[in-house]
Amino acid sequence: MEKNPKLSIVIPAYKEEKAIYHTIDEILKSHDILDYDYEVIVVVDGSPDKTAEEARRHHSSKVKVYEYSPNHGKGYALKFGTEKAKGDIITFTDAGGDFDPRQFDKCVRLMEIFDADFVIGSKRHPASKVNYPFIRKIYSWCYQKMIRILFGLNITDTQTGLKFLKREVAKDVMPRLQVKRFAFDLEMLVIAWELGYRRIFEAPVEMNFNATGVGAGNFKVIKNMFVDTLAVFYRAKVLNYYKKFKKTGE
Question: CA distances (Å), 35 to each of 111, 203, 230, in order?
Answer without folding.
Answer: 16, 21, 43
